[in-house]
Design goal:
By secondary structure, this protein is an alpha/beta fold. The protein contains 20 helices and ten strands. Strands 6-7-8-3-9-10 form a six-stranded mixed β-sheet. The radius of gyration is 36 Å and the shape is elongated. The two termini are about 65 Å apart. The structure holds adenosine-5'-diphosphate (ADP). Adenosine-5'-diphosphate binds near residues 107, 378, 379 and 380.
Length: about 600
C-alpha cells in the first residue's frame, strides 16, 4: 500500500516538498503544544483538591493556558493552510496535465474513452487526489506522531501500567476501519463507474436535445436517466452505509478504554499511587488518543481511493499519442504544392482500406475539388493533411517533401480547416470566428469584417439582436445549420491560411448563398491552395483539378471540362443536378450511388 502510494504520488511529493516540510514542522510543534493544556488542567485539579493553589498561581496558570491555546490555534492554522493547500495544488496540476494530454490526443483515444468518463476522471478522481494529498497526509501524521507523544507523557507523567491497559482496546478502531476500507474500496470503484456513465448520459441528452425532442423520446430518456440515477444512488448508498456504520461502531471501542482508565485510575488514586489531577490529565490524553486511531484507518481508506484514482488518471496520462513529430521534423515553411503517390489508408482497427491507391498532383495556389457519394472517402482524404492518423511511408508530399518532415503544430497552424460537422463553442459569434486568430493578426477588427463578408454572414448578423456579439448557445444550438457552417468557414478563413480545407462545408446553405461564397472565395484564395469536398458539383466546378472518389479509389480526375467529355458519373451528375433547377444535389443515377 505504502509502496503503491509512494509510486503514484512521488512526483507530487517532490514538487510540493517545501510546503510539506513546513507543514510537518508546524505539526510537530502543534503536537508538543497540545500536551500542555491537559497537564495544566491536572495541576489545577490537584491544586484545588489539595487546597494549596493560591489565587495568583491560579491566574498565572489560566493565562498560560490561554497563551498555549492561542499558540496552538496559530500553529494549527499554519500547518492547515500548507497541508490542505496541497490538495488544491495536486488538483490544479493534475487537471492541467490531463487537459494538456486530452488536447494532444487523436481520434483513437476519443473513440476508446467516452466524454463522460473523461469528465469523471477530471472531477471525481481529482477530488480523491485532493483528499489524499491534503487530508490523508494530515491523518497519517496524526496517526504516526501524535500517539508516540501521548504514550510517552501518559506513561511518564501518570503510569505505564494504566497506559498499557487503557490503550489495549484502541487498536481495534484501526482494525475496524481497515476492514470497512477494504469493503468500501470496490464499492467506491463501482460508484465511480456509475458516475461516469451518468455523466455520459447527461452529455448525450444535452447535446442531442433536438433529436430527443424531434422523436418524442423525452419520456423514455427521462425514464432511462432515472434508472441510471437510481443505479448511481444505490452505488453511493452502499458506500455511505459502510462509511456511516464505521463511526457508530468505533465510538463503542474507546468507551472500553475509558472504562479501564476510570477503574484503574480510581484504584490508583485511592491507593495514593497517582494524584486525582494525574487521572484528569490521563483521561484527557486518552481522549486525544482516539482520533489518531481513526486517523490511521481514515488515512488508509482515503489513500486507497487516492491511489485508485491516481492509477486511473495515470493510465490516461500514459496513453501514447497516435501521431508524434519525427525527431528531425522541421517547421513547415515551403510551398503548398501537394502530391499523393499511391496512397493507401486504413482506419486503426478497420479491416479494409478506406483509401486505395490515391495519386494526384496539385500546384500551390490551385483549387482541388473532391466529389463522390457519402462514404466514398472524401473527408478521410482531407483529414490526412491534419495528421490525425499515423502515416506509413512517404506517399503524401507537401512542397516536394513527405508530410512527416514537418512539425505537426506548424503544419496545422498554416491550415484553415472547416469540418463536415461544424463545431461552435458556447460563446459569441465573434469569439468563435476569432478562435482562428492564431497567431494573432495585426488588425483583427478589419479582418473580422472581411471574413464576415466572405462567408456571407453580414445579412444574418444584421437580423440578430446583438449582431456579431450574439451568443451561439451550447454547440451553436440557437443557429441554423447553414449559419453554423458559415461561421466555421469565417473561422477557417480568418488567418488567411496557406491551405484551406472545406469539407462539405456548404451542404446546408442554399444555392444563391453558395454561389456568393464561392465567387468571393475564388478572389480571396488567389495564389493560395484550397481543397473543397462536396456533394454538389457546383461547389467544385471552378476547381483546377477534380477527383471523383468511389469507394476509396479515384474513379476519374481532371478539370470540369475534361470530366464532362466522357460519358461518366460526373457528366451524368452534372446534367442531372443542372436539370434539378440549380439545387444540384448528389442524386443516384441508376443503382447505388450511380457510378456505373
Ligand atoms: P465521405 O467524406 O466521402 O462521406 P468518409 O471519409 O467520411 O466519407 O468515410 C469513408 C469511410 O470511412 C466510410 O465507410 C466510413 O464509415 C469510414 N470511416 C470514417 N471515419 C472512420 C473512423 N474514424 N473509423 C473507422 N472508419 C471510419
Amino acid at each position: 500500500m505504502f509502496k503503491r502510494l509512494y509510486n503514484n504520488f512521488s512526483w507530487f511529493i517532490h514538487l510540493y516538498r517545501r510546503p510539506y516540510a513546513f507543514a510537518l514542522i508546524f505539526l510537530v510543534i502543534n503536537y508538543a503544544l497540545s500536551l500542555v493544556p491537559p497537564w495544566m488542567v491536572g495541576t489545577v485539579a490537584d491544586g484545588l483538591i489539595g487546597g494549596d493553589l493560591q489565587l495568583g498561581g491560579f491566574v498565572r496558570l489560566i493565562i498560560l493556558l490561554l497563551l498555549t491555546v492561542g499558540a496552538l490555534y496559530g500553529v494549527n492554522y499554519l500547518w492547515n493552510v500548507r497541508l490542505l493547500k496541497a490538495g488544491d495544488e495536486i488538483a490544479r496540476v493534475s487537471r492541467q496535465r490531463l487537459m494538456e494530454r486530452f488536447r494532444r490526443q487523436g481520434p483513437k483515444f476519443y473513440s476508446e474513452h467516452s466524454v463522460g468518463s473523461l469528465l469523471g476522471k477530471s472531477t471525481n478522481d481529482v477530488v480523491a487526489l485532493t483528499n489524499t494529498a491534503g487530508y490523508a497526509v494530515m491523518a497519517l501524521c496524526d496517526a504516526a506522531m501524535q500517539p508516540l507523544a501521548l504514550i510517552l507523557i501518559m506513561g511518564i507523567q501518570v503510569s505505564w501500567k494504566m497506559t498499557f491497559f487503557s490503550l489495549l482496546p484502541l487498536p481495534l478502531v484501526m482494525v475496524l476501519s481497515l476492514y470497512v476500507g477494504k469493503k468500501m474500496y470496490p464499492l467506491y470503484d463501482q460508484a465511480q463507474v456509475a458516475f461516469d456513465e451518468m455523466n455520459s448520459m447527461v452529455l448525450d441528452n444535452v447535446s442531442g436535445v433536438r433529436v430527443v425532442r424531434a422523436y418524442g423520446r423525452q419520456q423514455q430518456q427521462i425514464d432511462a436517466f432515472a434508472e441510471e440515477s437510481k443505479r448511481l444512488y444505490k452505488s453511493n448508498m452502499k458506500v455511505v452505509r459502510y462509511s456511516v456504520l464505521f463511526p457508530v461502531i468505533s465510538k463503542l471501542i474507546p468507551g472500553f478504554s475509558y472504562a479501564i482508565a476510570l477503574a484503574m485510575g480510581g484504584f490508583m488514586v485511592s491507593s495514593g499511587q497517582i494524584s486525582a489531577g494525574d487521572m484528569v490529565s490521563f483521561i484527557i490524553y486518552l481522549d486525544m488518543m482516539v482520533w489518531p486511531m481513526f486517523a490511521l484507518g481514515d488515512f488508509i481508506n482515503v489513500a486507497q481511493m487516492g491511489v485508485a484514482s491516481m492509477e486511473r488518471i495515470q493510465e490516461l496520462l500514459d496513453e501514447p499519442f497516435d501521431v508524434v513529430d519525427r525527431p528531425d521534423a522541421v517547421p513547415y515553411d515551403t510551398s503548398s504544392d501537394i502530391e499523393f503517390r499511391q496512397f493507401n489508408f486504413t482506419y486503426p482497427g478497420a479491416e479494409d482500406a478506406t483509401l486505395k491507391n490515391i495519386s494526384f498532383k496539385l500546384k500551390e495556389g490551385q483549387t482541388l475539388g473532391i466529389v463522390g457519394c457519402v462514404g466514398a472517402g472524401k473527408s478521410t482524404l482531407l483529414k490526412q493533411f491534419l495528421r490525425y492518423y499515423p502515416l506509413n511511408g512517404e506517399h503524401i508530399l507537401l512542397g516536394g517533401k513527405p508530410l512527416q518532415n514537418y512539425q505537426i503544430a506548424s503544419l496545422r497552424s498554416r491550415i484553415g480547416y472547416c469540418s463536415q460537422q461544424p463545431f461552435l463553442f458556447s460563446a459569441s459569434i465573434k469569439e468563435n470566428i476569432l478562435f482562428g486568430n492564431m497567431p494573432p493578426v495585426a488588425d483583427a477588427t478589419a479582418r473580422l469584417e472581411e471574413v464576415v463578408d466572405l462567408a456571407d454572414l453580414r445579412k444574418d448578423l444584421m437580423e440578430m439582436p446583438r449582431g456579431i456579439e450574439t451568443r451561439t448557445g451550447e454547440k451553436g444550438v440557437t443557429l441554423s445549420g447553414g449559419q453554423r457552417q458559415r461561421i466555421c468557414i469565417a473561422r477557417a478563413l480568418f488567418k488567411n491560411p496557406d491551405i484551406l480545407i472545406l469539407d462539405d462545408s456548404l451542404s446546408a446553405v442554399d444555392a444563391t448563398t453558395e454561389t456568393h461564397i464561392l465567387e468571393r472565395l475564388q478572389a480571396e484564395r488567389k495564389g493560395k491552395t484550397t481543397l473543397i469536398s462536396a456533394h454538389r458539383l457546383s461547389c467544385v466546378m471552378h476547381a483546377d483539378w477534380i477527383l471523383v472518389l468511389d469507394d476509396g479509389s479515384i474513379r476519374q480526375q481532371g478539370t470540369h471540362d475534361m470530366l464532362l467529355e466522357n460519358d461518366s458519373w460526373y457528366r451524368k451528375q452534372y446534367y442531372y443536378q443542372l436539370a434539378s433547377g440549380g439545387e444540384m444535389r448528389n442524386q443516384t443515377v441508376g443503382g447505388g450511388c450511380g457510378y456505373d
